[in-house]
Amino acid sequence: MTRRTRTWLGVISLVVVVGTAILAAVRVEVLTGGSLLRPPVASVSVSLPGRGGQMDLDIPSVSWLAPYQARHITVQRAGQDVIDTDLFPTALTPEHGLALYWIAAEGREGPYVRLADPAGDILLDLRGFRAWRVTTNGDQPWLAAPTGVSVAGHVAEGDGTMTMVAGRPFVGLAAERTGELLGLIEAGEAGAVWRPADGGDE
């Protein structure tokens, strides 16, 4: 092996190591949470019906970072954040986009906003001020934490014993209703575009 070959192999190895470290740091937000590195994001604001407030969604505007960079969502009412959380990383695909559905309140349940994400729906509980990822636990629809670190819960077995699991069963109003389509967040030249279902202002 010549000296030139060894030099090139060393450079390639260094690039791989540094690149892997940067992607790992972005994924766990070691760098994105501070001033060393903040990958650009595209922000979309949506006014929710009634007293739902305003929803703001930040998504990666650099497509190759999307599988590593967490998205972020907030819901504000009267200038206060009632929901403020990261969402699991995934790309905003041109083929599907991200549909938003409104599920109006009934009795002591709701209202809810459902983000129909091909990688796993997100449910915003605007009464309980919580965000959930809709998944499954076997054949049971299931709610887990939106960042991929699930909330502790339990399931009653047939013999009455309680088994500790991650998340909780997805039941009730939001599980029974699809809701009213508010619009679609689509990939655009600026990163994301809000398309209201009623054809109103974007």
Describe the SSE topology.
Blueprint: H1 3-28, E1 41-47, E2 54-60, E3 71-77, E4 80-87, E5 98-103, E6 112-116, E7 122-125, E8 130-137, E9 140-144, E10 152-156, E11 162-166, E12 168-169, H2 173-176, E13 180-186, E14 193-196
Antiparallel strand pairs: 1-2, 2-3, 3-4, 5-6, 5-13, 6-7, 7-8, 8-9, 9-12, 10-11, 13-14
Overview of the structural elements:
The strands form three sheets. Strands 12-9-8-7-6-5-13-14 form an eight-stranded antiparallel beta sheet. The chain has two domains: 1-38, no CATH class; 39-196, no CATH class. With 202 residues, the chain is mainly β. It is elongated, with a radius of gyration of 21 Å. It is built from two helices and 14 strands. The protein has helices at 3-28, 173-176; strands at residues 41-47, 54-60, 71-77, 80-87, 98-103, 112-116, 122-125, 130-137, 140-144, 152-156, 162-166, 168-169, 180-186, 193-196.
Question: Could you provide a short overview of the structure?
Answer:
With 202 residues, the protein is mainly β.
Summary keywords:
single chain, 202 residues, mainly beta, 8-stranded antiparallel sheet, 4-stranded antiparallel sheet, 2 helices, 14 strands, elongated
